Fold these 4 entries.
Entry 1:
Amino acid sequence: MKVLIISLDKTLLGEKVSGGDAVERHREYGKFCDELNIIVFCLGGYEKQELSQNVFVWPTNSKSKLRYAKDAIKIAKQIYQDVGFDLIVCQDPFLTGWVGLKLKSKLDVKLLVHFHGDFWLNKKWLKEKWYNHFLLPLSKLVAKKADCVRVVSHGIKNKLIRNGIKKNKIQVIPTPVDLNKFLTCDAARVYELKKKYAPREAVDKIILFVGRLEKEKNLSWFLKVFKAVKQEYNNVRLLIIGEGSLKKKLQVASHKLQVARSVEFIGRVGHSDLTNYYHLADIVVLPSTSESFGKVLAEAAAAGRPCVATATTGAKEIIQDKKTGFLVPINNQKQMIEKIIKLLKDEKLVQQMGEKAREHVKKDFSSAELYKKIANLWQDVIRN
């Protein structure tokens, strides 16, 4: 089969992000295709990439964001004319999904749309950006007209069904994560990190956050939680891995809250080094207001680390509450503080939960099986 993906992910064009594994994932997808072409929305300056012998990434290199759709459609038509494709896969139900609909109409090709985010029936998502109020009806139009919708959790599937999307049109397949990379670590590197961030005389516990520094990750709120945690358990440090538009604001907030000396903004970390940070940590946190899957939670679990996360749709898919970690209501400061302190003070519980978390994700989130499921889904959509 020949597949065209419409994407927003500039890491496929060589842009670096913390823990990014998109290139490896798309190479794996390519193993199930005769040819896989990927069009990425971007402004000018990128070159076409060849990820493998049959996987190619095409930048739109648009003059402005307003031209993304027009440029993507132009490239797609040229690819269709040169080599053809049987299926269009869109990364989201918004602009990439709209481009997919246009191509489906013009070329009579099947369309699969992904829901990687928790958008529907989510008031917090609507408040995050003013234009989300316009994106929501667009996503409903795209979902209704697509041949198939892939979601990453059963919670999102249930929301779509409640909004009129046919049950048999929705498939639940989480994003594949190569958990094997997180099962082990470089002991020497972890020791090096421990000396740097957790010198025994000053710090004996590490809390880790991994993700984009954006509003939906709720770090401004979590810094207040961390201040309260330190008041009861002083010898703890918070490591924040990732970049985003709120980085400077969060750094300022850490100073205002007088926790700056205990908060490290590490920035980007290479995917191969990320496992060492998970193994360094005692607890991993994800305080998001919305989370469709929470890949970070699966990675941390594979490293044998318990997580404390807000009870978003995605977190509930991965964490077994009170068994592999803790789920707390969104923005419930009291419970978040209590659960973190409970783990900080009980090393045996940390170990028990970490071991159960690892067993759970190895059993239910095997990347090899998920790649096969995705490839089978593509073939089913093409045939039906």
Entry 2:
Amino acid sequence: MKFGYTILYVDDVEKTVAFYEHAFGLQRKMVQPDEFGELDTGSTKLSFAAKSHVESLFTIPFQRSGPEHDAPPVEIGLVTHDVQAAFDRAIAAGAVLVTKPAKKPWGQIVGYVRDNNGFLVELCTPIE
């Protein structure tokens, strides 16, 4: 078995994919605006499903997400060799600052922002 993808539930798939393209330089792989979108993120995919579509499939309640709510208990990790440049780009594109990039005791540089849906995004250097 291998980890294939993460799907985040969002209000607007197209808007979210466009945000990730602009803020993080990722490329869309496919978008079905009212249902599903996927970014080209290597062998493990980052995907988004419309909350309205997901709620039509399941009868269980979901925690609300969005910038007006507390951050959900999950984060997306994006790895780059230039965290500061990635961080600056994300902030310029409308991401919300959580913590500025800083060097951790184990040598990794890490910074956090929230995306347009309120999800935490970690921007970090590879652990080498």
Entry 3:
Amino acid sequence: MFQEESAPLVGDVAAHHRAMSLNVSDVVTELVDILGLSAVAAIGGVNETRAVSQWMDGREPQRAQTLRFTLQIALMIATREDRHVARAWFQGSNPLLGDRAPLLMLRNLSLDEIQGPLMKAARSFARR
């Protein structure tokens, strides 16, 4: 999936289409590839990575829309060259989000509350 280029994987509209058209197990698989098992577990609201593995095997997660939205953002900000860019973005303090970390916002707050600010921050980062 990742090739040697340092441009975002896809633009925001294409990222939205991809995240919404995949089945949930594929969404989770792509997220794990980009962000890692522990981050996906936290965003999905579980304490054990075993649950993430079960989601990849077809079990339905409780926070499927949050996971889809997370994939959308991850595809917008990840680079083909280095998925660590996305990991750093999700885990780091973001000045556009009141110095909060996107991963913690996704884990702790409702999607309705954070969707707009996270999308704005991701679009800003993707334009870098």
Entry 4:
Amino acid sequence: MKARFDILLLKPARDFLIKLDEKSRKKVFYILKKSSIQNDPRFFKKLNANIWEFRIRTLRGQIRMLAFFDSRSGALVVCTNGFLKKVSKVPSVELLRAENMRKQYYLENESI
């Protein structure tokens, strides 16, 4: 099957993944790939006007990877950051962090 979008991991997202155990990291990559091919809101869900979340369940808990679509290319999803979810709502500090990274991404890539 052809991917609906490509995924770019920003440094904070890569750093988060490096800290995970190997089994959890493999599951995150599996869900990222699966979400890029198949539309399933259990794994990839819109949180607000700009930010989406990849939802991954592991034995150790719930992992969330926040992301946004690069509006200049409808086929690129940029993962900004990841965290272990401990409460029912996505923490506002994580959403704000993703929004700030989105703004910074566009500032750094204006000429593209």
